[in-house]
């Protein structure tokens, strides 16, 4: 029999359900008010009813009514969990981060974290967010700094999470530089410590990245201060410098508006490099001083180089400079010759500024008998006479006057009760930096004083200040040389031409004003007389 159609099936007594020995398969839809199950009944797909009355469910079962009794094993989303209205929402467990601890979890569990405001799932090992957080930066304080590492920047915004990192993004090239450290203050505030940032990359954006990958950027928010500014003018730092001589004193300088220290370096390899085409000098990175010996050149050479001023934040500014090195020494400099001076204002490079002046010790007990201070046009018969003996390229006094001299007398009487002086001194001297010798030429008529033929003296000095009517122009002396110090080694010899050559290599005539003076000194019955013929500077390698 393959099919039965019946309105009612009962047992033989018509008082109960029938017994079907080999089971019955029902397809389609059936309605039963009471079913006795000997083994199990499979209902549709995913539902099995056991003989014990228990049912097991696989898949999703949606119940719109009815009730369940006994033990039910099912993956069920019922109407209490799923809103079947138009909202279609899913209700899942919620709690803060700490409430996850100690809870039995299985792979795939879902929950809403009220602390991070993120939906998270359990992957079998750890809880992970579904999607990324959405941090936001509103503003920063301060918005400008000097570019150095270690400055604290306060970042104000929303949705920050502990463990967030901060980067500073260059608007010039997009480079990202990590903050030195980041402190999580709250969900609305972070504190980031700056790395060193240069002005070349400013302004800088501030990027915050939460641990889950949520990221935000406040563009162009931070200014990195300013770069050093050169105070030394570009171009030549010195010219006419003789080869193989000590370089003149030169120091370059730059300042930083942010008050940072400035370091100096060379971006080329000309100033500090060695070998052909290089100067081989030293550049002090802290002071900017350039020192050393001028290079040996076979012809006049200009060396061009670039220096860099860098502040502590690595902001740098470059400037081009040069030195001119010549193949020969400058000519002999006749600062004073005969009865005229080599005038600095006329020559514009070297000479005496302001000519010469005369003075004597103006004191009540002086009782001078002779203070002759007179120029004479001829009479010198020393080794360097006349314009004809001076090369045309040397800086010297007017031709024809080199044979003149100044006659100076320091005369005292029996009433002289103090030491007296009579002499002359120059204005400021301008001397070539490579000149290392000074020569004084004179004729001494007498050293008489205090009733002795050799008790007086003649002294010449270099000063940084002079006083016209003080004893020996009593200013600030740098050198002092009398008859017994002179290089002609003639001691107290008089009625003779005398000279003295001495070293001036340590004297910086360019940076500090120096004056030269000479005077005779004596006491009672002083009769010191002398004539000054010539004052010369030169380089000892070249000679006169």
Structure summarized in a few sentences:
The chain is 1% helix and 39% strand. With 544 residues, it is mainly β. β2 and β3 form a beta hairpin.
> What is the number of beta strands?
39
Strand content: 35-45%
- In total, the number of domains comes to 5
What is the CA-atom radius of gyration, in angstroms? Answer: 53 Å
Looking at the structure, the CATH topology of the largest domain is Jelly Rolls
The geometry reads as rod-shaped
Account of the protein in words:
By secondary structure, this protein is mainly β. The chain has five domains: 1-76, no CATH class; 94-129, no CATH class; 136-222, Sandwich (Immunoglobulin-like), CATH 2.60.40; 229-326, Sandwich (Immunoglobulin-like); 333-538, Sandwich (Jelly Rolls), CATH 2.60.120. It has one helix and 39 strands. The strands form nine sheets. Strands 27, 28, 30, 31, 32, 34, 37 and 39 form an eight-stranded antiparallel β-sheet that branches. The model is unreliable at 62-66, 71-77, 379-394 and 396-401 (pLDDT under 50).
Topology:
Elements: E1 40-43, E2 47-50, E3 55-57, E4 72-73, E5 94-95, E6 110-113, E7 118-122, E8 127-129, E9 136-141, E10 152-158, E11 165-170, E12 176-178, E13 181-186, E14 189-193, E15 204-209, E16 215-222, E17 229-230, E18 235-236, E19 241-242, E20 250-251, E21 254-255, E22 262-266, E23 282-283, E24 289-291, E25 301-311, E26 316-326, E27 333-337, E28 340-341, H1 344-347, E29 351-360, E30 368-370, E31 373-376, E32 405-412, E33 420-430, E34 437-446, E35 457-465, E36 476-482, E37 496-503, E38 515-522, E39 527-538
Parallel strand pairs: 3-4, 5-6, 18-26, 19-26
Antiparallel strand pairs: 1-2, 2-3, 6-7, 7-8, 9-10, 10-14, 11-12, 11-15, 13-14, 15-16, 17-21, 20-24, 22-25, 23-24, 25-26, 27-28, 27-39, 29-33, 30-32, 31-32, 32-39, 33-38, 34-37, 34-39, 35-36, 35-38
């Amino acid at each position: 029999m393959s099919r039965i159609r019946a309105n009612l099936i009962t047992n033989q007594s018509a008082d109960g359900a029938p017994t079907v020995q080999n089971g019955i398969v029902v397809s389609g839809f059936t309605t039963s008010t009471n079913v006795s199950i000997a083994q199990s009944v499979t209902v549709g797909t995913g539902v099995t009813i056991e003989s014990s009355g228990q049912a097991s469910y696989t898949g999703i079962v949606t119940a719109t009514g009815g009730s369940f009794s006994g033990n039910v094993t099912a993956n069920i989303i019922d109407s209490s969990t799923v809103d079947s209205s138009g909202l279609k929402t899913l209700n899942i467990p919620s709690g803060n981060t700490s409430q996850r601890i100690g809870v039995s979890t299985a792979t795939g569990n879902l929950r809403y974290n009220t602390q991070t405001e993120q939906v998270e799932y359990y992957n079998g090992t750890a809880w992970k967010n579904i999607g990324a957080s959405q941090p936001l930066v509103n503003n920063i304080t301060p918005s400008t700094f000097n570019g150095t590492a270690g400055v604290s920047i306060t970042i104000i915004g929303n949705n920050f999470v502990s463990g967030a990192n901060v980067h500073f993004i260059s608007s010039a090239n997009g480079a990202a530089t990590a903050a030195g450290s980041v402190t999580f203050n709250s969900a609305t505030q972070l504190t980031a410590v700056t790395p060193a940032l240069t002005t070349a990359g400013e302004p800088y954006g501030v990027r915050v990245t939460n641990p889950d990958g949520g990221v935000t950027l406040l563009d162009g928010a931070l200014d990195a201060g300013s770069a050093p500014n050169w105070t030394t003018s570009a171009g030549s730092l010195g010219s006419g410098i003789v080869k193989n001589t000590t370089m003149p004193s030169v120091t370059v300088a730059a300042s930083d508006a942010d008050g940072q220290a400035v370091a100096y370096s060379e971006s080329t390899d000309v100033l500090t490099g060695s070998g052909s085409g290089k100067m081989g000098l030293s550049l002090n990175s802290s002071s900017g001083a350039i020192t050393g010996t001028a290079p040996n050149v076979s012809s006049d050479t200009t060396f061009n180089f670039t220096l860099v001023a860098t502040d502590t934040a690595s902001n740098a500014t470059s400037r081009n400079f040069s030195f001119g090195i010549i193949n020969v020494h400058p000519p002999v400099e006749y600062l004073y010759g005969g009865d005229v001076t080599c005038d600095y204002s006329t020559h514009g490079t070297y000479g005496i500024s302001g000519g010469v002046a005369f003075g004597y010790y103006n004191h009540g007990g002086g009782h001078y008998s002779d203070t002759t201070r007179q120029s004479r046009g001829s009479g010198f018969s020393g080794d360097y006479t006349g314009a004809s003996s001076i090369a045309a390229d040397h800086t010297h006094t007017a031709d024809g006057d080199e044979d003149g001299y100044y006659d100076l007398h320091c005369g005292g009487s029996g009433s002289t009760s103090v030491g007296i002086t009579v002499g002359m001194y120059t204005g400021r001297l301008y001397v070539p930096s490579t000149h290392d010798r000074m020569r004084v030429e004179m004729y001494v008529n007498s050293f008489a004083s205090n009733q002795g033929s050799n008790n007086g003296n003649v002294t010449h000095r270099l000063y940084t200040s002079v006083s016209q009517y003080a004893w020996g122009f009593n200013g600030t002396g740098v050198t002092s040389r009398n008859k017994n110090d002179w290089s002609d080694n003639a001691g107290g010899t008089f009625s003779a031409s005398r000279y003295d050559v001495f070293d001036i290599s340590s004297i910086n005539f360019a940076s500090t004003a120096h004056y030269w003076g000479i005077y005779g000194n004596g006491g009672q019955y002083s009769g010191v007389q002398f004539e000054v013929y010539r004052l010369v500077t030169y380089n000892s390698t070249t000679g006169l």
